[in-house]
Design a protein that fits this description.
The radius of gyration is 21 Å and the shape is elongated. Helix 9 crosses helix 12. By secondary structure, it is an alpha/beta fold. The longest helix is centred in the C-terminal third of the chain and has 18 residues. It contains 13 helices and twelve strands.
Length: 332
């Protein structure tokens, strides 16, 4: 059947309309800053986008994922809604699309100009959302990070990952806070991540990469999982996605202090402030594993109740409903 282009309608708009008519729902493209498909498995942003995409598709919305080198592809331009998972780059808006920026990290890189061109800005921090509202006239909403509970769930412990204390994450060419504090406290965390060689004893490095699908087993195997936040994320109230994933696995999490951790999870996430405090907290968690596990299971229940991608997809559609309705787009 030939594509019928209506009067004054561009070919991309016509294709978008026909796809929407067939699906009966608004379609999405999720644009990530992941450089290309080859490197995608190593990027947390890609797995986050996959989790959201699965739930949008389950709700009947055709959804495409793109790496940065695919942003210009026609497959993304025909979607009704483009969502840029904010990274190092600025995704261009395409003619005729609703353009959404979702700031999940790196808040200092979100510019007023980038917000002004968007139809909607979503922020994974209520604290930072208030600040963004002061810098743009574009509507700003809160959409926190989340977990894919089908993947991140308790698993049988694997002896290869049995550690009293572990840290998962790349160094990003600095001695990260959680590891630096642990070393200052006289602790020796097992480290899973890349580029740690200049900063720690090589004997601490267990592996430079763990596939995303293996992380639930690792989280389920360690006694305590260390977590930290980059300085700008901590300053602006962004809870790291690893916290959601680890809690969903029933892991005991010890993180740097962030008020939002208590607001979201109560006392389910233990926190530290300095080496002495970390040493005492680790000792307490290891000496009383039953209480530590009770806190972890409380955290898992809170994540399943309010922080899954199924819930985030529904919240996203709630944010978009007035914008979709204003354009006569169905499926919200």
């Amino acid at each position: 059947r030939p594509t019928v282009v209506g009067p004054g309608e561009a070919p991309a708009e016509a294709l978008r309309r026909l796809l929407r008519e067939r699906a009966g729902q608004a379609s999405f493209v999720l644009r990530t800053s992941v450089p290309d498909r080859r490197s995608a498995p190593a990027w947390g942003d890609w797995h986050l986008a996959e989790g959201l995409a699965r739930q949008l598709r389950a709700a009947g919305h055709p959804t495409t994922l793109q790496t940065a080198d695919e942003w210009a592809d026609d497959a993304g331009h025909v979607a009704d809604v483009a969502i840029h998972l904010k990274g190092h780059s600025v995704a261009p808006r395409a003619h005729g699309q609703l353009h959404v920026v979702w700031c999940i990290s790196r808040p200092r890189e979100l510019t007023p100009e980038e917000c002004d061109v968007a139809d909607l800005v979503l922020v994974a921090s209520g604290r930072f959302a208030d600040r963004v509202r002061e810098r743009t006239s574009t509507p700003v909403g809160v959409l926190l990070q989340a977990t894919d509970e089908r993947r991140f769930r308790p698993r049988a412990p694997d002896p290869r990952y049995r550690h009293r204390l572990a840290f998962v994450g790349n160094s990003r060419h600095v001695l990260r806070d959680a590891v630096r504090t642990a070393l200052a406290a006289g602790l020796r965390p097992a480290i899973y991540g890349a580029n740690w060689e200049p900063y720690v004893d090589a004997g601490l490095i267990e592996a430079t990469f763990v596939p995303n699908e293996r992380l639930p087993v690792l989280y389920s195997s360690v006694d305590i999982l260390l977590n930290d936040h980059w300085e700008d994320m901590r300053r602006h109230g962004f809870v790291a996605n690893r916290v959601f994933d680890a809690l969903a696995c029933g892991a005991v999490v010890l993180s740097d202090h962030l008020p939002e951790l208590g607001e979201l999870f109560g006392d389910a996430v233990a926190t530290y402030s300095g080496a002495d405090d970390m040493a005492a907290t680790v000792r307490g968690l290891l000496d009383d594993p039953e209480t530590a596990r009770e806190r972890a299971w409380k955290g898992r229940a809170l994540v399943l109740d309010g922080h899954t991608f199924r819930l985030r997809a529904a919240q996203l559609l709630d944010h978009l409903r007035p914008l979709l309705a204003a354009r006569g787009l169905p499926g919200a």
